[in-house]
Task: inverse folding
């Protein structure tokens, strides 16, 4: 048989080398350098950290940059005090003798972070050797780059020690109209680093409360028999997959070691259990879906789920019941038989606290607009899931917790005082309230920490 081959005189077909056209979503190396994120600048700020109390002049178009004048009424010269502010020092203080005037100066220079604009004749007070406090005055300011978020290079000189210039130091204190505290931790996280003193104290306290709450919650509710979290105080093991899914999303293993061991029980990909409910709203900040989510929940027996041993589903666990939608949405199904699970007659029962019951907290109210608002409603106040009917229908009888949850979902600033009051009384709640309200407080505290305050 002859071997097929190309004729010697035939021309080889060539493919045209067409240019490659970039897709529409192509992005070139050109970028807008007008705004550089603060976090990227922090990596390049040099110098040693120096903690100071900074006094920034309050300026308007009618004010000039002047040294502090102790003879002038304080109303005409005002400052903002920023405690624990950090200056990045480039060179240590050095003595400088002027032979013409006979004055010995002590100049230095450093870097100011981008979020604060320094001015000539701003002051700062800090330790200057031998634990003696000294007053320094800024003598020169230079912007480091043309970017919108730019660090500033400053030069400063020693004015005097506080003991020798008590009149100047007292004038700075008396003329400080607003008081702030600097947080390096918030600066690294690209959050507002300067807080009002009262906000800083509450945020610091809430962050410690958050750490304590995480430890308390998982030590209390992690059940080693089930190797997961089960609803406390019930006669049978009841599993809430929605709450477990949220906790795994918001709590890291560094915060709670028990997260490593929590077993998520399969639910056979039941389509109705994937429909939105309260914890989805919390995770997505989706207030618009409040009226479309499953607002009521019931319990279903594990025996209604798949019995295939290979799937290792809930049927083969020691859980007896699962939280399931009371009236799931079946409007999108084509089949006449929606195959929804039949709810069991089993219902949740109240779980008492260590010291009494949840009803003992009814007397704890928050005064607002001549109305006393209860801190919490019992979880079993009505048949709505987690929170009460007042929250879902947005009526006036919401609890303080429900008011804060609504503000959170609508992306509004949280009232720190209300949140602080809730955390103070959390351990007095019944176990069922602690189980469901604990994760809500975790989310609210995290949101309060991330918020910006002016």
Result:
């Amino acid at each position: 048989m002859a071997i097929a081959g190309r004729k010697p005189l035939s021309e080889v077909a060539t493919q045209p080398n067409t240019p490659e056209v970039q897709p529409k979503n192509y992005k070139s190396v050109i970028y807008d350098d007008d705004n550089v994120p603060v976090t990227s600048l922090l990596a390049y700020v040099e110098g040693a950290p120096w903690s100071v109390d900074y006094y920034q002049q309050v300026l308007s178009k009618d004010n000039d940059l002047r040294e502090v004048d102790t003879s002038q009424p304080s109303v005409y010269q005002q400052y903002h005090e920023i405690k624990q502010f950090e200056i990045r020092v480039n060179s240590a203080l050095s003595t400088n003798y002027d032979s013409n005037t006979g004055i010995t100066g002590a100049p230095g220079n450093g870097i100011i972070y981008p979020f604060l604009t320094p001015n000539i004749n701003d002051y700062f007070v800090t330790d200057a050797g031998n634990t003696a406090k000294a007053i320094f005055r800024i003598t020169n300011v230079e912007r480091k780059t043309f970017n919108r978020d730019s660090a500033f290079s400053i030069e400063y000189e020693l004015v005097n020690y506080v003991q020798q210039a008590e009149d100047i130091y007292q004038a700075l204190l008396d003329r400080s109209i607003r008081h702030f505290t600097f947080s390096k931790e918030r600066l690294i996280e690209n959050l507002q680093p300067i807080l009002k003193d009262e906000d800083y104290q509450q945020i610091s306290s809430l962050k410690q409360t958050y750490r304590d709450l995480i430890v308390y919650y998982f030590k209390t509710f992690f059940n080693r028999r089930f190797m997961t979290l089960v609803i406390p105080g019930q006669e049978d093991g009841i599993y809430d997959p929605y709450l477990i899914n949220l906790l795994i999303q918001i709590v890291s293993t560094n915060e709670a070691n028990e997260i490593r061991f929590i077993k998520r029980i399969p639910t056979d990909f039941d389509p109705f259990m994937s429909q939105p409910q309260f914890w989805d709203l919390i995770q997505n900040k989706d207030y618009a879906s409040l009226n479309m989510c499953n607002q009521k929940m019931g319990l279903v027996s594990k025996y209604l789920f798949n019995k295939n041993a290979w799937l290792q589903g809930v049927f083969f666990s020691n859980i007896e019941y699962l939280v399931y939608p009371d009236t799931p949405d079946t409007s999108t199904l084509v089949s006449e038989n929606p195959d929804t699970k039949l709810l069991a007659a089993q219902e949740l029962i109240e779980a008492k606290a260590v010291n009494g019951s949840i009803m003992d907290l009814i007397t704890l109210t928050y005064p607002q607009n001549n109305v006393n608002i209860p801190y919490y409603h019992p979880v079993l106040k009505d048949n709505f899931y987690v929170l009460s009917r007042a929250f879902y229908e947005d009526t006036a009888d919401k609890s303080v917790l429900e008011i804060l949850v609504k503000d959170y979902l609508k992306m509004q600033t949280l009232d720190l005082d209300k949140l602080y009051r809730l955390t103070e009384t959390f351990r007095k709640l019944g176990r069922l309230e602690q189980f469901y309200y604990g994760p809500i407080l975790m989310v609210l505290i995290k949101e309060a920490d991330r918020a910006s305050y002016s």
Summary: The chain is about 25% helix and 20% strand. The two ends are 91 Å apart (CA to CA).
